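@channel sequence for tomorrow's demo:
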Amino acid sequence: MSYIKNVIPLPKHRLLLEMNSSSSITVDLSIKLHTMKYRELRDEALFAHVETDGNYVIWGSGRVKVTINELLDIVMHGEQLE
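structure tokens (generated this afternoon):
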């Protein structure tokens, strides 16, 4: 079952996730850009070319791949130690 219907890049390293449940979520990834996993997303051109397969949010043909659960964790808890 897929969860994400569409993903739209927003200014300041935010994403709008349109869910299959008809809800939407805005995720602020700017707080994660200093981490190893997300540091490539500082490149605004890469960040703007985001896509989804329904379960993952993907940049650069898989260079950066994030699960819906990881994104929801960022929404719920913000900055966390890794």
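heads up for whoever presents: The chain has one domain: 4-77.
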